Amino acid sequence: MPDRAPQPVDRQLPTDEARDLISLVRDIAQREIVPSAAEEEDAGRFPREVFALLSESGLLGLPYDAEHGGGDQPYEVYLQVLEELAAARLTVGLGVSVHTLASYALAAYGTKEQQAEHLPAMLGGGLLGAYCLSEPASGSDAASLRTKAVREGDDWVIDGTKAWITHGGIADFYTVMARTGEDGPRGITAFLVPGDAEGLSAAVPEKKMGLKGSPTAQVHLDGVRVPDARRIGDEGQGFAIALSALDSGRLGIAACAVGVAQAALDEALSYAGQRRQFGRPIADFQGLRFMLADMATQIEAGRALYLTAARLRDAGLPFAKQAAMAKLHCTDTAMRVTTDAVQILGGYGYTVDFPAERYMREAKVLQIVEGTNQIQRMVIARHLAGPEGR
């Protein structure tokens, strides 16, 4: 029924340029992403050609300086672009978020010479990045990583294994955190490693519950040699760089989660307006209407929360607590909303003929990546009550 058809999100955007940008993203999503999303996810196919198009369209470096090929957009605009992409297909939205995360270290901590040499290709030259912090034995306890970089003259030789790497095996560059000194967070340094470096390889991608089109794999570094010119920041600064990147990255995950939740709500609204039982659309029944109202309210609250954090970031103010809150709330919301969407579709929601079941499977991983939601609660509590064990 037309009066119940979902409408595009009514966004509050700061400029006409931002409104044009959202229109461009929606056009690309409807033409190039949505039509093949279900089929390609089922087949586990990564849409590299879509990322090439996004790069050509200036959408892979939105929050970075135009001087180096970025889009000069504030985070509040970039995140709403991510939300639109994730609503179309999470593999794409998450992929853009991870690429932005992988580019952050060089953009924020690299020398002017490093930025001039590498950023134009990273942000607008069709390259795709990966972020390498986690390892098989160090996930939430990232400061205990064991991948080691040893100085040999003007080079560093890196050995170790990284785990749960989005774009592992297909990335053109890897931002790698490796131990160069003492145990703990102060002995870690960041490096920019080319995807074709000798000694770098990837394991067979993990077989996942959802997000099958996005490759997640272990990355092995076996005597990978990189020049000191590819060291990012000072020796021992890598863990601080990694945490700073994750504050922004969590906002990307929050926006992706809202996108998936919005897609699930739209699917539920469309179905409820057309499905008839007892002589009328099921959208007329109060129990279901209340479910839809709760879903929409949770989504709007999540969107407001990530935008508040983004605006703090754009103003140069502390935003780590709000980023953790946004990641926590938005991903938990995505799980609730997608589960409710499956319930509204009933038996059809449990079949692959409708996208609700895919949204539900995809939402789960967002509660885990870039810091589990239990870690987010720890971060928030530290901001509220101070460090543990004082």
Describe it for me?
With 390 residues, the chain is α+β, with helices and mostly antiparallel strands. The protein is built from ten helices and ten strands. The chain has helices at residues 16-43, 48-56, 75-88, 90-109, 112-124, 238-274, 286-314, 320-345, 356-366, 373-385; strands spanning 129-132, 148-152, 155-166, 173-179, 188-194, 200-202, 216-227, 231-232, 276-277, 280-281. It has a four-stranded mixed β-sheet with strand order 1-4-5-8. A four-stranded antiparallel β-sheet has the order 2-3-7-6, with no helix packed on it. α6 packs antiparallel against α7 (286-314). The longest helix is centred in the middle third of the chain and has 37 residues, at 238-274. The model has no long low-confidence stretch (mean pLDDT 96).
Portion of residues in helices? 40-55%
The total of beta strands comes to 10
Summing up helix and strand content along with how strands pair, one would put the structural category as: alpha+beta
Strand order of the largest sheet: 1-4-5-8
Q: Which spans of ≥5 residues are poorly predicted at pLDDT below 50?
A: none
Q: Main β-sheet, in a few words?
A: 4 strands, mixed
Rounded average pLDDT: 96
Give me the Rg, rounded. 21 Å
The run of helices and strands is HHHHHEEEEEEEEHEEHHHH
How many separate helices? 10
Strand content: 5-15%
Cα distance, first to last residue?
60 Å
| Molecular shape | globular
